[in-house]
Amino acid sequence: MNGAIVAFCCQHSAYPAADLAGKLGLHYPEALRIIRIPCAGRVDVIHILRAFEKGASAVLVLGCEDGACHHITGNTRAKERVKHCEMLLKEIGIDGRPAVMFSLSPNAPHKFVRVANEIEMVTRELREAR
Amino acid sequence: MIIAERKPMAEISRAVAPYKKVLVAGCGTCVAVCWAGGEKEVGILASQLRLARSAEGNEIVTLEATVERQCEKEMVMELRDKVSEVEAVLSLACGAGVQTMADVFEDKPVFPAVNTTFIGMPESEGVWVEMCGACGDCYLDRTGGICPVVRCAKGLLNGPCGGTRKGGKCEIDAGKDCAWVLIYRRLEKQGRLDLMRQYNAPKNFRAVKRPGRVQAVKA
Amino acid sequence: MVTPFRETLKTKDFIVTAEAAPGKGSNVAKTIEHIELLKDKVDGLNVTDNQSSVMRYPSVGVCLLIKEHGGEPVLQVTCRDRNRLAIQADLLFAYSRGVSNVLCLTGDSVDVGDHKEAKQVFDLDSVQLIHLVHTLNSGKDMAGNELDGSIDFCIGTSASPSSDPLEPQLIKVEKKLRAGVSFIQTQAVYELDELKRFAEFVRNIDQDVKVLAGIVPVIGVKMAAYMNENVPGVFIPQDLIDELAEAPKGTGVSKGIEIAARMIRQIRDARVCDGVHIMFIGREDRVPEILAAAGLV
């Protein structure tokens, strides 16, 4: 898991988008680890922290766009939890490891790939800055 | 119920700095309800400590456990085995729980990870407000069910003070209501303002001689 | 010979009191200057008690200075810093040294002062304090013990006629009146109608109580805005703020004094209440101007 970019992907949006990206042969980072979840709202703060404990360099939570959540408020909750996680990491002086939430639609493979590549660049820059 | 808030992280880190193996112990009652020290919070704090210490190159091993009520000796004793494996205990319980742990496991350093703040209730989701000061001499019969001892910032029994802000807010915190204005409105609603007109003599501050002790009898 | 305040209250037509604030430190030179300046121009000189929860030289200390310099002190006592034992003891001491007027107050919270982590006492509130002084006056302490050497304080208290909401305040004022006070010094008032209504309210319950209107000169628009926003129980009306705004630059203090003097005249001419209590914190040296402009000297 060392250096991995963990991506929790909602099965209604991000996961199909990732799948489509794969089928189209779009390039996304080697380090990306896709974890399929029933809803972004299923991700709890502890999952993000544990991902970092296992060596992840960044954690992405990818869910449905505003108003499109199949569980109504799952994506909203995920956003709040990711924000809370930012604070928890800052508290212990770990701000070189980003945890970020993104929204996308199921047929947005290009957005998926863009997000993944951006995060990879950010983690690389942070690593080099140290 | 008892409300507590997690201590600043710096304090917690400093407390466990000398130790390599600690038990992070939660309580499933009051502190779990107010999101300060239940099983979930134990998991998060333990993870934070592991991450922080790993980044320093000074790993810490954490055991995690949450009992139903940390203020009960019998329940705390269930943690005996785990406690024997660690150098210190970080308790997320209220002060009563921390001290029960410290009394039962006398040879182990026990540290509080939360600050116990007051007896209160939820005003709205996640917002807790102080209601009772455990003064041992309840005045709620005289004030329409609103406590003048803790909800009035100065604990006045013949309020309000001259500091009430416009609209009936407290001198000390414009976000808080003046308890005596609340009392006035409540008693007015009930047609019992005569209660507010009554003089309340100085309080018996020794109604509970601290440290308090009560012998209850089971009916 | 200084007339005891108790007598002045009974005999004088229009009563005037002012404040001599203690300083922060054991140096009392400035305080003495203010005492000398004001003692003969007013009927009573109040001394504040750790005013605004800022630690200062004690009220009883300045009261003694006032006595030494031939003035008539009014000892202000709050409930914030002392419990019932300390308050009773302090009153015995003050009386034994010739201080015989006391103003009973609740006291500001420590949050507004400079020792914000201190424990607030509030063993008593202002109403209970008034009862306490009566008890001591009757020759007993609060626990019912006979005193060896009694006291006889003239008791006063404060009130906030501009409080919003007003009814709860009035209920408390009524409690204070029923406990028995000889005089009330109000918080700063800027509207005569409000003051008139308050004075009537007091008279209906106890016609012997003297009401002294609080006069705090406002020296600028900023100060007015600050007070309206931050000082509880005080309300400066718009027409006054407009008048201040029109004053030429640099004349703020004079304008404030002019307005204050005008208000005092109006109160006196219309006999709205029994006198005034002038508070000009930090500018005690300008109080004589107010008195002169109001025709009180």
Q: Can you describe what's shown?
A:
The complex is a heterotrimer of chains A (130), B (219) and C (297). Chain A is of the alpha/beta class. Chain A is built from four helices and four strands, in the order βαβαβαβα. Chain A has helices at residues 14-23, 45-53, 74-91, 109-129, and strands at residues 5-10, 32-37, 58-63, 99-103. Chain A has a four-stranded parallel β-sheet, with helices on both faces. In chain A, α1 (14-23) crosses α4. Chain A is globular. Chain A starts with a strand and ends with a helix. Chain B has two domains: 2-117, Rossmann fold; 133-197, no CATH class. Helices cover 30% and strands 20% of the residues of chain B. Chain B has eight helices and seven strands. Chain B is elongated. The relative contact order of chain B is 0.12. Chain C is α/β, with parallel strands linked by helices. Chain C has an eight-stranded parallel beta barrel with strand order 1-2-3-4-5-6-7-8, surrounded by six helices. Chain C is globular, with a radius of gyration of 18 Å. Chain B binds chain C through residues 153-168, 171-172, 178, 180-181, 183-184, 193, 196-197, 199-203, 205, and chain C through 80, 84, 106-109, 111-112, 120, 122-128, 131-132, 142, 158-160, 163-165, 167-169, 171-172, 174-175, 178-179, 187, 232-233, 235.
